[in-house]
Design a protein that fits this description.
This protein has three domains: 174 residues, FAD/NAD(P)-binding domain; 151 residues, Protoporphyrinogen oxidase, mitochondrial, domain 2 (Polyamine Oxidase, Chain A, domain 2, Alpha-Beta Complex); 99 residues, protoporphyrinogen ix oxidase, domain 3, CATH 1.10.3110. The protein has 16 helices and 20 strands. Strand 3 and strand 4 form a beta hairpin. It is globular, with a radius of gyration of 23 Å. The two termini are 27 Å apart. Bound molecules: flavin-adenine dinucleotide. The site of flavin-adenine dinucleotide (FAD) has 38 residues, from helix 1, strand 2, strand 15, strand 19 and helix 16.
């Protein structure tokens, strides 16, 4: 299709929406818009502009000589119904793969030894994760009064507390170092001392605000659960899922659904550099092409790219978008013959607290989590290095990076000989960092977008870095966009494959 061609705005097809970025957020938003518009009988056409020749963003599954590994996320938890609704919408339920039961077992490196993270408070008390003094301090959480200014970070950034500070205040220094620091490294590739609790884990702020503390919240929610006989949302729960064929299955199905719909299209190789508004309609330009006549723009590219798109339109907005930092991360897939690994690999994997002074952030025992990722008689490990706290490792060459990781891993996993597979993926800007002030910045971004009208920003840079958060946001946003465009509350979209 030539640039400037594309979907025609025929009679009754006057609402056209541009989505920039064909990652899971952009693709899912485009589909949600189409489905909702169809359900309410609104003629609406959607065009997704993707920089690369392939769609999917970070959701990409690689295969090599019988090995299968992920470029970005290795799965999603089933505790977010929006992703499962999307799975059903795409007819992917039969391809869903549940992680093994062994994957419930997670380990931390503590004083040089791997310790399993206990799943019950009783088991925690007898574990070696914390010293007796650390456990005692943790138990005193019940006595720590709640902060008075909780929940105000978006309007008063001075009240925005880091994850580390929160952990130390409520549960003690040792808990923050041993438990929170590695969790933040594992989820965000970030540093607990540099990330905002309210932006990264808003539920924790709600629990302290509503119940006066975390243990009090656990007790109250536990009681409510027993009374009602159902699950509560006291903390992250859910089982990790992927697809037979890996996470790419989800984004490939999304792109296919959009491309088989006459009212939507995906333009690949469009590295958008500008969006502009004239006569009430938006235009989108990239080197070698442009399209105009869009009623709304949904920018689902990473924040640093969105900053470029808006540089001419609104320099202050562009500066706010550019100020959202990203952590770098190197993902190193290592395959071994089973006989060359003495560890039983019976679990999900391990995370490494910063105080252990290692270069490894963590390692997943991938072939223990999902079946079919390694050839017979082999195992697959997925190692992470770098992160916001150690960006220098990104500049090492391949051999040096593998040496660095193996120096930490060899003894812990009992590795012998050379790996049968090595694959390195360097994510220079892997994961958005929700630093203190993020919620206030988000508010400024939303206000600026609202001033321009029909401009929206979505994706992992803003309101949740996980696939689940991105998909959930697309449903909410699709409703909001349709309401703004048509004035009518959108009808419930039909869920049909
Ligand atoms: C190493 C790693 C591990 C992760 N692990 C997990 C996990 O286990 N579980 C989980 O839930 N999440 C995980 N995540 C996060 C997950 O990858 C994100 O939630 C998800 O990819 C966000 O999707 P997105 O569409 O917002 O962004 P992206 O996936 O970054 O997609 C953005 C898209 O925009 C395109 N684009 C960029 N600039 C332009 C432009 N100028 N014009 C047009 N298009 C442009 C890009 O090419 C890309 O396709 C991980 C991320 C990384 C990097």
């Amino acid at each position: 299709m030539r640039d400037g061609e594309g979907l025609k705005s025929g009679p009754g097809a006057n609402v056209r929406v541009a989505v920039i970025g064909g990652g899971v957020a952009g693709l899912a938003a485009a589909l949600a818009l189409r489905d909702r518009a169809r359900a309410q009988g609104t003629p609406l056409k959607v065009t997704v502009f993707e920089k690369d020749t392939q769609t999917g963003g970070n959701l990409r599954t690689l295969t090599q000589d019988g090995w299968q590994f992920e470029w970005g996320p290795n799965g999603f938890l089933d505790n977010e119904p929006a992703t499962l609704r999307l799975v059903d919408r795409l007819g992917l339920r039969p391809r869903l793969v549940r992680s093994s039961d062994a994957a419930r077992r997670r380990f931390l490196l503590v004083n040089g030894c791997l310790e399993e993270i206990p799943l019950s408070p009783k088991a925690f008390l007898s574990s070696k994760l914390l010293s007796p003094r650390g456990k005692l301090r943790m138990a005193r959480e019940l006595l720590v009064p709640p902060r008075k200014d909780l929940g105000r970070a978006a309007v008063d950034p001075a009240t925005d507390e880091t994850i580390d500070r929160f952990g130390e205040r409520r549960l003690g220094r040792e808990f923050a170092d041993v438990m929170l620091d590695p969790m933040v490294k594992g989820v965000f590739g970030g540093e607990a001392k540099q990330l905002s609790l309210a932006a990264a884990f808003p539920r924790m702020v709600e629990l302290e605000r509503d119940h006066g503390g975390l243990f009090r919240a656990m007790i109250a929610l536990g009681r409510a659960k027993r009374r009602k006989g159902r699950r509560t949302d006291a903390g992250p729960t859910g089982v990790l899922h992927s697809f037979d064929g890996g996470m790419a299955v989800l984004v490939d199905a999304l792109a296919a659904a959009l491309e088989s719909d006459p009212d939507s299209e995906v333009v690949r190789g469009a590295d958008v550099n500008t969006i502009a508004r004239g006569d009430g309609l938006w235009s989108v330009s990239w080197p070698g092409g442009s399209r105009d006549g869009f009623t709304a723009v949904l920018d689902a590219a990473p924040a640093h790219a969105a900053a470029r798109h808006t540089a001419e339109l609104d320099p202050a907005l562009s500066r706010d978008l550019a100020a959202i930092p990203y952590a770098p991360m190197a993902v190193i897939a290592l395959g071994y013959a089973r006989k060359n690994v003495s560890h039983d690999l019976n679990g999900f994997g391990m995370l490494v607290p910063g105080r252990e002074k290692r270069n490894l952030l963590g390692a997943l025992w991938s072939s223990s989590i999902f079946p079919g990722l390694a050839p017979d008689g082999h195992v697959l490990l997925r190692c992470m290095a770098g992160g916001a706290g150690n960006p220098a490792v990104m500049d090492l060459d391949d051999a040096a990076l593998v040496d660095l990781v193996l120096k930490d891993l060899r003894g812990l996993m009992g590795l012998r000989g050379e790996p049968a597979l090595v694959n390195i993926i360097r994510h220079r800007r892997a994961i958005a960092q929700y630093v203190p002030g993020h919620l206030a910045r988000l508010k400024a971004i939303d206000e600026a977008a609202a001033r321009h009208g029909s401009l929206y920003f979505l994706g992992s840079a803003y309101r949740g870095i996980a696939v689940n958060a991105c998909v959930k946001e697309t449903e909410i946003l699709a409703d909001k966009v349709l309401t703004a465009l048509t004035g009518a509350r959108p009808a419930q979209a039909e869920v049909a494959p």
